[in-house]
Amino acid sequence: MNHTVYLSFNTKKKIDIINITNQVNRAISDSKVKDGLVLVNPMHITAAVIINDNESGLHQDYLRVLEKLVPYYADYRHNDTGEDNAAAHIWRQLIGHQVVMPITNGKLDLGTWEQIFYFEFDGQRQKRVLVKIIGDQ
Amino acid sequence: MNHTVYLSFNTKKKIDIINITNQVNRAISDSKVKDGLVLVNPMHITAAVIINDNESGLHQDYLRVLEKLVPYYADYRHNDTGEDNAAAHIWRQLIGHQVVMPITNGKLDLGTWEQIFYFEFDGQRQKRVLVKIIGDQ
Amino acid sequence: MNHTVYLSFNTKKKIDIINITNQVNRAISDSKVKDGLVLVNPMHITAAVIINDNESGLHQDYLRVLEKLVPYYADYRHNDTGEDNAAAHIWRQLIGHQVVMPITNGKLDLGTWEQIFYFEFDGQRQKRVLVKIIGDQ
């Protein structure tokens, strides 16, 4: 039996990083799936879900590199439509926008430092992340 | 029952972006899968499949950023082999080359603005995209 | 029945690229799965698994582009913690850190030039890559 959960986020800051590993493990536990795959996909196109290290210095480095490569406030055609978030759309593609992770023995099968993060690049409003679990109970 | 479809593209332009959301939804409908996952993977390594906004200004922004970061015509070792598409190989890695998307109630479970796009970076010839659907009917 | 394999790597060089297509196909063969999906996910967050061309010039191009965009030895907050691998964490996000590939007729369903590579960005120590196979036997 598959299992689908919709997580909700509304960050106080426009750009923010949230560790969602526990929320994904809770969804897996609720699904009763013991072995399979979990897709974690942001339903908004100015956000990303990635796997990396739970280290705040590294998180600053990610944001500084993205700002250097693709400055948030610069000249973008998308922003001619009245938006100001073109860079957020691009950042989420560069950083890797979604993850599929393994489930073994009823939980995320992670390496020592692997954690799942939600990267918000245009926050301060309601956003959703879809968690779809498939596998054997 | 799984279901596999091979989509074909032959773009008139060397670099092009095509909305393939309807083609993926048609494959899901044909599969009769009601809940599961769909992998959309280009079978050529100078193309990408991504999720983003159906807005032409943003599509221009993507291509302008890729050209700025990795100029299409520059000095690449791969092009010493007689090819001219090294940058196309690199662009598709930077932008995110494949997607896995959720199927709920027999169709793509998308956020309001999520659409699936085929990004061709070395076109004007036959290319294929594999769509593999797994889940419960 | 799902099937899980943990591949191990310990590269002699700090930065290295290894073709793992045959190892993934062997895991699929051992699984007896005829049709499904295989996730290939590095369990370490300074490595990546990607699909691209088995051409050494192109591999040099990848590394040269990453070094140009995000120099390995530069000023990173993560390295204030005593690490020297901040760029390795960032490279693996830019290049695309994991792949999900289709299995048809009991093996990888690849385009002519698609091959699976392990990209090591902080090697000379034991690393693991998880291969999770799901589908129908």
Describe the structure.
The structure is a homotrimer of 137-residue chains. Chain A has 137 residues and is α+β, with helices and mostly antiparallel strands. Chain A has one domain (2-136): YjbQ-like (Jelly Rolls). In chain A, 26% of the residues lie in helices and 36% in strands. Chain A has 3 helices and 8 strands; from the N terminus they run E-E-H-E-E-H-H-E-E-E-E. In chain A, the strands form 2 sheets. Chain A has a 5-stranded antiparallel beta sheet with strand order 1-8-3-5-6, covered by helices on one side. A 3-stranded antiparallel beta sheet of chain A has the order 2-7-4. Chains in contact: A-B, A-C, B-C. The interface between A and B is medium-sized, with 31 and 34 residues.
Characteristics of this structure?
homotrimer, 137 residues, alpha+beta, Jelly Rolls, five-stranded antiparallel sheet, three-stranded antiparallel sheet, 3 helices, elongated
Protein topology:
The structure is a homotrimer of 137-residue chains.
Chain A: E1 3-9, E2 16-19, H1 21-31, E3 35-42, E4 47-52, H2 56-69, H3 86-95, E5 99-104, E6 107-108, E7 115-120, E8 127-136
Antiparallel strand pairs in A: 1-8, 2-7, 3-5, 3-8, 4-7, 5-6
Rounded to an integer, what's the Rg of chain A over CA atoms? Answer: 16 Å
Structural class of chain A: alpha+beta
Biggest interface pair, residues each? A-B, 31 and 34 residues
Using the 3D structure, state the CATH architecture of chain A.
Sandwich
Taken from the alpha-carbon principal axes, the silhouette of chain A is elongated
In total, how many beta strands of chain A? 8
Give helix and strand order of chain A, one letter per element, not per position. EEHEEHHEEEE
Euclidean distance between termini CA atoms of chain A: 7 Å
Strand order of the largest sheet of chain A: 1-8-3-5-6
* Proportion of helical residues of chain A: 25-40%
Major β-sheet profile of chain A: 5 strands, antiparallel
Average predicted confidence as pLDDT of chain A: 97
**Can you tell me the CATH superfamily of chain A?**
YjbQ-like
